[in-house]
Amino acid sequence: MSQGTPDRVFSVSEVTGLVKAALEDLFPRLWVEGEISNFHRHQSGHLYFTLKDDKAQLRTVMFRSDARSVAFELKDGLKVLCRGRLSVYEPRGEYQLYAEAVQPKGKGALQLAFEQLKEKLRIEGLFDPARKRKIPLRPGTIGIVTSPTGAALRDILRVLERRHARLGILIHPARVQGEGAADEIAEGIRTLGGLPGVDVLIVGRGGGSIEDLWAFNEEKVARAIAASPVPVISAVGHEVDVTIADFVADLRAPTPSAAAEMVVEKETAFLDRIGHFESTLALRMRYKLRELAAATVHLTQTRAFPNFRLRLLNAAQRVDELETRAWRRMKDEQRALAGVAAGLRLGMEKMGSAMARILRESLACWERLSSALDARSPLAILAKGYALCWDPATRRIIRKAAETRAGAEVMVSFRRGEIACQVRTVDRSATVESRFKETP
Amino acid sequence: MSAVHFEKAMADLERIVDKLEKGDLPLNESLALFEKGVKLARSLREELAKAEKKVEILLKDEQGGLRREPFEPGEADDEAGSGDEGPSKP
After folding, report:
1. Given the DSSP bridges, would you call strands B54-60 and B66-70 parallel, antiparallel or unpaired?
2. B70: nearest CA in chain A?
3. Quick check: B11 contacting A, CB < 8 Å?
């Protein structure tokens, strides 16, 4: 090769083509480990980034068709392993790695994807406990999004059968694994959640590998759950399987069977609560009646009756008023008790004989007491022809001759009417008995 | 009765019981509440007793509309994964 007159002159394209061919021959397929930098996702869907270590950089491109299958999110700083081939991008004369697959270094791609989405949705607040809605006490219809031929549905129906649950079930069939599964699940959630009468959703599938369960880790499913107008119970795989859907759901059931149990439990708890309320009602009413009976006794024995006597003896002119008050009181109580009888007819049917007995007892008690009161009423005594003599100045009953004196004014009250009198003489020793001895 | 009605009726019943528990009401009011409570509890029980199990599946017709059909579970297949009894993921 002499200077100035080259044997052979290559065009740029030729030399680039030769380098390209040599490079492709030399590295048909290889794995490269490095850290992502200058990551860029083009509108077209192709990914461009640089793989670097502490000494060198390697331009990398990943086409859309390959990029689609990357479950996790590529970003600067992430350490990855790229599988691909080396070639030259001729327009720029740059060699680069054409990546076909990428996986995070140190952990599985799905694991990383899971962590990334979980963090993203957590920051958005989709897992916030305040967002969780209560599962209705007694759903009318339960919407189920799952495979119609899957184990999850079979298990759910088996539980409902065993527990004799009388509930409406509406299934939205969806594939639960493979391409398109997440779309079908999300659509099922949207459709069922929007149907009138559907009060709660169960979304899930039976157990499987992390790949099998993957649809429940996809963002579209998480978003559909979060947007559901009715509460969603997630029921994916086994107890140990935790998916993004579980975090977003209003309630996580460890298994599909458990989801069904939870709904049925609600119904049982519901019946228990009704039962509890019924017995509390009955108990309260019983106390109320006992209280009433006790109050009646108390009223007559310790307050009203002695009061009644005391006041009558001390102020005869208030007999009428007392009469009115006493009888009004008594009538009120009697009316109330009659109300008890009417109102309790229903209750008696329901609550049985215990309450009816208490009611009868309190009515009988009242009748007994009111007739006793009647017999001893001063009105009854006045009606027999007795009269009360009292001092209008002190408004006190005059119980013996010594309490008045000749010339004093006294009042005498009869059953009807009263007379004002003036005392002419006072005999302190005369007795009623001596007077009546002479009568036949 | 919808789930919402159930919740409401239950809340009403609870309020009635609470009021009665306080016990400072006149007899007439207590009785009215008692009667209302017993009626409410009974109607809830009746509603529950009336309910029936109904299993339906939502199917798409040719026009893309949805219709409900009674659902009879067949044998589970493996495509949808093993059941709760099956092997767990590693």
Report:
1. antiparallel
2. A170
3. no
Please give the order of strands across the beta sheet that includes A396-397.
A396-397, A388-391, A409-413, A418-422
Q: For residues B89 and A272, what is the distance between their CA atoms, to the nearest angstrom?
A: 38
What are A16-71's pLDDT values in tens digits? Answer: 999 999 999 998 899 999 999 999 999 999 999 999 999 999 999 999 999 988 88
Q: For residue A264, tell me if it sits in a domain.
A: no
What is the identity of the amino acid at A135?
I
Are A371 and A398 in a shared domain? no
Interchain proximity B86–A155, CB inside 8 Å = no
**pLDDT for position A41:** 92
Tell whether A157 is within 8 A of chain B (Cβ): yes
Give the pLDDT band of residue A322 (cuts 50, 70, 90).
very low
> Which of A252, A251, A254, A253 lies closest to A240, judged by CA?
A254
A246 and A280 co-located in one domain: no
In whole angstroms, give the CA distance from residue A386 to residue A389: 10
Cβ separation of B55 and A288 shorter than 8 Å? no
Residue A397 lies in a domain: yes
Q: What ipTM was reported for this prediction?
A: 0.71
Q: Which of A383, A401, A421 is the last residue of a domain?
A: A383
Residue of chain A nearest B46, judged by CA positions? A271
Q: Domain range for residue A427? A: 388-436
Determine, yes or no, domain membership for A122.
no
Domains in chain A, number:
4
Q: Is the pTM higher than 0.95?
A: no
One domain, residues A364 and A408: no
Domain-embedded: residue A114: no
What is the SS3 assignment for A106? Answer: coil
Residues A246 and A274 in one domain: no
Which of the four pLDDT bands, split at 50, 70 and 90, describes residue A91? very high
Nearest to B75 by CA among A272, A149, A435: A149
Quote the minimal CA–CA distance from B48 to chain A in Å.
8
Count of other CB atoms within 10 angstroms of residue B59 = 15
Residues of chain A contacting residue B80, judged by C-beta atoms under 8 Å apart: 146-147, 149-152, 176-177, 205-206
The average pLDDT across A283-297 equals 65
CB contact (8 A) between residue B42 and residue A146: no
pLDDT-derived band at A202, boundaries 50, 70, 90: very high
- Are A94 and A39 members of one domain? yes
